[in-house]
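Example: Thymidine phosphorylase.
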Amino acid sequence: MVFLPQEVILKKRNGEPLASEDIARFIAGFAQGSVSHAQAAAFAMAVYFNDMDMDERVALTLAMRDSGTVLDWSDLDGPVADKHSTGGVGDNVSLMLAPILAAIGIYVPMISGRGLGHTGGTLDKFDAIPGYQTQPDNALFRKVVRDAGCAIIGQTADLAPADKTLYAIRDVTGTVESIALITASILSKKLAAGLDALILDVKTGSGAFMPTLERSRDLAQSLVAVANGAGLKTGALITDMNEPLASAAGNGLEVRNAVDFLTGAHQDPRLREVTLALCAEIALMTHKATSPEDARALVDDALDSGRATGHFARMVAALGGPADFVENMDTYLASAPIVRDVFAEGQGTIATIDTRGVGMAVVALGGGRATPTDSIDYRVGFDRLAPLGAVADAQTPIARIHAADEASAAEAEARLKRAYGLGDAAIENPIVAGHVGAKE
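Written out as C-alpha cells, the predicted fold is:
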C-alpha cells in the first residue's frame, strides 16, 4: 500500500492515536527526503496540540533512533552508561560525572550538545581547552572510550539524523516545548549511543526550561517511561535550578571550576551533591553497587582518591588537549582582559536568584548564543557567584565578572544585579526535588 504522509498528519491533527508502523514510515520518509519539511512541521504542530500517548512516544523515539547508526559497545568489558541534563546555568556536572564513573569501571561514551539561550552547553566548555576535538571520527571516539573509560564529544552526522533536522524545524515553528517531542529528541540520541543505562538530570526552577516542579515531574516521568519502554534502563533525578549549580557560569570558568572540583581544590557543596547523587544512581543501575549507601561510598572514593582526575586527564589528552592540562590549566585557559567584583544594589540576604537572568548575563558578555550560529568567547562569564542565603553588602560582592570590554561588562553587571533579589531570608529549595526510578 502506498504510504501517504498527509494521512498521518490528518490523524494526529484530529486527535487520533498513530500506529507504530505509521510513525516509523513517516520518520523514515523524513530522513530519506520523501516527507517534506513542511509536512514535518505540520506533524510537529499536530503533536504539540494533541500530544502522544506512551506507545506513540516510544515508537517516535525508536523511529528517530533508527534513522541513523546505532553504536555497539559489546567489545568492552564493563557496562556502558551516560547522563543527560535538561539544561541550566553553571551546570558542568558532565565534566566530573564521566571520569568518576570511568573510575569505577563504567564506560561513558557521552554525546553532548552546545548551549542555546540562557543554558550552557557541555561541548562549548570543552572548546575552551586548546586542541580538544569535540568531533572526532568514530575510530578515535571508540579508542578514547576504551582507553580512558570516557569520551565527551558532539553528535555525529550519522547518529539520529532525523532528530537534528526535526529539532531545527521545531525551533522555528514554536513546537519546542512539546513533552512528547522533547522526549523523543533526547532519547533517540541516547538510544543510538548503545547504552546499558541512562540517568536523567531534569532541572526545575527559575533557570530550567520547565520552571515548575509539576512540569519537571511530567517530563521526567515521560522520559523514564519511554526510555524503559524502548529497552534502555533509565532513571531520573529532578534537581533544583533556582540558583546556578556551580559558583561559575561561562565556559572556560566552568572548566576551571570542574578541574578544581576533581582535584579537591574547591568543591561547591550543591554541585558535589548533584554530581555524586547522579553517579550513585548509575552505580546502582549497572549493579556496581547493591545499596544506595554502597553506591555513594563507591563514587565518593572514586572522586576523593584522585582516580577520577586521572581519567579526566587521559580523556583530554587522548582527544587532542594538553597532556598536562590538569596540572597547568592556567597556562591553557585564556583570561579575559577585564576582571572585577560585582556588588548588589543595597545590602541584605540573597533571597532569590533569577537563574535564567544570570545565564542571559553570560550571553550578554559573549559567553553564550542568541542564535545557533553565534560565536562564543570562552574567556567570559562569572565566578565566585554568591549562593542563596549569602549576605551581600558594599564589602561583599555577589560575583566576579570576566569581560572582553567595558560595554559588555556594564550590560552584564546590570543584568546580574537585577537577577539577585535581596531580603531578610532565602527561600530554601531541596537540591534533589524528586526521583523517578528505573525498571529492573
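The radius of gyration is 22 Å.
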